[in-house]
Specification:
The complex is a heterodimer of chains A (159) and B (364). Chain A is mainly α and 159 residues long. A three-stranded antiparallel sheet of chain B has the order 5-6-7, with no helix packed on it. In chain B, strands 1-2 form a two-stranded antiparallel sheet. Classes of the chains: A mainly alpha (159), B mainly alpha (364). At the A-B interface, helix 2 and helix 3 of A face helix 3, helix 4, helix 5 and helix 6 of B.
Chain lengths: 159, 364
């Protein structure tokens, strides 16, 4: 429990830094730290595979690409957003908070429920991905393929 | 409970101690090796009270003293915080990867079984790749915080190169994972103790020779050393991402590079060269294919295994250093072409063939 509170505090701290930092690279690094701490949070929740994948995919690949783009374009500071954007963002955040509050208030699983031995292992994740969630998994793959083809098409047009 | 914690702490300390010291020794081996290849003497200036006989010890002491007492320079318009953070980010992943590499089988002391591995994760391979993917941060952040165009170029090159080769590296290992049916390094090493036709050790390199070549190439590229040194590129961008680093921080980048060499050697050994396996050595002695049996005490067997692992790791460290001073460097576009157009398709073909072989062999 103490570990959870430390991790939760760190997650909130780093996520606050993401939005409050003026320097884009500092924000990106704070986001990477947030993702890393969340991965540790997954580890404490008996989901080591999810935690390691979080580091591998988000902290290790996506954030690196974001940093890569920042360094290539080098925006020195973020330009101010119009107030409408702030309103829209705040509304979205509030809606998400409401949904999460409902979940916290009435959790779908009791906190005392025992975790099955194979929970969170590679076998069980593969089982559910390729049986119960085969269609969403396939659709997500097609979406990624479309994104790759789009990127290649954009790069080709400039030649 | 306390004994268990103490055992883990001792194992973690030992592994960190060995990796860091091996990294330091490799610094000397590299200088001597380059001198050997270039027909010089090399690294012969450090002497203690006029005594230069023990070059290794003298250089090992002199190098860190020199580096640590130098001025720590931060560029005027650089980013102080990130400039300091970057060397830590470069050194950290190289050191923690070794936690899941087994350096011996189970050691039984006083009825207590000690697994000779710091952390026995059932997803060890994924952990290795997660940590490897973090090692890009050190160079990217260091390059950006230096506020130097040469640095920035090095950092951008480094990020592109490391992300590209991680893909080939990951795909080449999936073949191995399919063959052994596990993501656990210790279980992989155990599986490599089998024999083909009663005499050939079933090491990863025998089962997956192509994967070994791809993995080793990608691992060398991940260490950013010649022939893949585009992020440093001394002849074109001075020293790339660490051009604005001096003193202790440079020492950390330097140690991180050699720690990566040691880690790469450890990974190649574990995945493809049987880890701590000695051919024909089982728990209680040698069982040679021609039928003779030499019984050994369990402690002797463990010592032999750890020694075998160490010798294999040292061999691959040496091979990487010889490679660095033998091969000419690639241009940046050649590195990208090799990674995306040769290694990646080859890894995919290897993966497909392996999967097809497994499906044909094992009726569902």
């Amino acid at each position: 429990m103490i570990v959870f509170f430390i991790l939760a505090f760190l997650t909130l701290l780093f996520s606050l830094l993401v939005v409050t930092q003026r320097n884009v690279v500092h924000s990106a690094m704070a986001l990477a730290a947030t993702l890393f701490v969340m991965a540790v949070l997954f580890l404490t929740l008996d989901a080591p595979m999810l935690g390691v994948l979080q580091i591998l995919v988000y902290a290790g690949a996506i954030m690196i690409l974001i940093l890569f783009v920042i360094m290539l374009l080098n925006p020195l500071s973020i330009e101010a957003r119009p107030a409408a954007w702030w309103m829209l963002g705040s509304l979205g955040a509030a809606a998400l908070c409401l949904q999460l509050a409902a979940l916290v208030h009435r959790p779908a699983v009791s906190a005392e429920a025992a975790v099955p031995a194979s929970f969170g292992g590679p076998e069980s994740i593969a089982q559910s991905l390729f049986t119960d969630f085969a269609l969403p998994f396939g659709l997500a793959s097609v979406l990624l393929l479309v994104a790759i083809i789009g990127a290649v098409a954009l790069a080709q047009r400039q030649r | 409970m306390i004994v268990d914690l103490a055992i883990v702490a001792v194992k973690a300390f030992l592994v960190l101690f060995m990796v860091l010291n091996l990294a330091g020794i490799l610094g000397w081996v590299e200088r001597k090796g380059s001198a050997l290849i270039q027909d010089r003497i090399g690294a012969n200036r450090a002497s203690i009270f006029g005594f230069a006989g023990m070059g290794l010890v003298n250089t090992l002491i002199a190098d860190p003293i020199k580096m640590l007492t130098k001025e720590d320079f931060i560029p005027a318009h650089g980013d102080r915080l990130m400039h300091t953070l970057a060397p830590c980010l470069a050194l950290f992943p190289a050191l923690v990867t070794f936690a899941v590499i087994p350096f011996g089988d189970v050691l039984v002391v006083g009825g207590r079984e000690i697994n000779l591995q710091v952390a026995n994760l059932n997803i060890g391979i994924l952990y290795i790749f997660a940590m490897a993917s973090l090692s890009v941060y050190g160079i990217v952040i260091g390059a950006w915080a230096s506020n130097n165009k040469f640095s920035l170029l090095g950092g951008v090159r480094g990020a592109a190169q490391m992300v590209s080769y991680e893909i080939a590296m990951g795909l080449s290992v999936i073949g191995i994972v399919i063959v052994y049916g596990t993501l656990e390094p210790q279980a992989m090493v155990r599986a490599q103790g089998e024999l083909f036709w009663g005499w050939l050790p079933a090491w990863g390199v025998v089962r997956q020779p192509l994967a070994f070549l791809l993995f080793f190439t990608a691992a060398v590229a991940e260490t950013k050393r010649l022939p893949f040194d585009a992020p440093e590129g001394e002849s074109e961008i001075v020293a790339g991402y660490h051009v604005e680093y001096s003193g202790g921080k440079f020492l950390m980048f330097f140690a991180g590079e050699f720690a990566e060499v040691v880690t790469a050697a450890g990974l190649v050994t574990t995945l493809f060269f049987g880890g701590w396996q000695v051919p024909y050595l089982l728990r209680d002695g040698f069982y040679f294919p021609w039928g003779s049996v030499v019984s050994l005490a369990p402690l002797t067997v463990t010592i032999l295994q750890v020694a075998a692992f160490t010798v294999k790791v040292l061999f691959f460290c040496w091979l990487q250093i010889i490679l660095r001073w033998t091969l000419p460097r690639f241009r940046y576009d050649q590195i990208m072409r090799l990674g995306w157009k040769m290694l990646l398709p080859a890894a995919l073909v290897n993966l497909f063939l392996t999967a097809a072989w497994i499906v044909v062999r094992r009726p569902v």
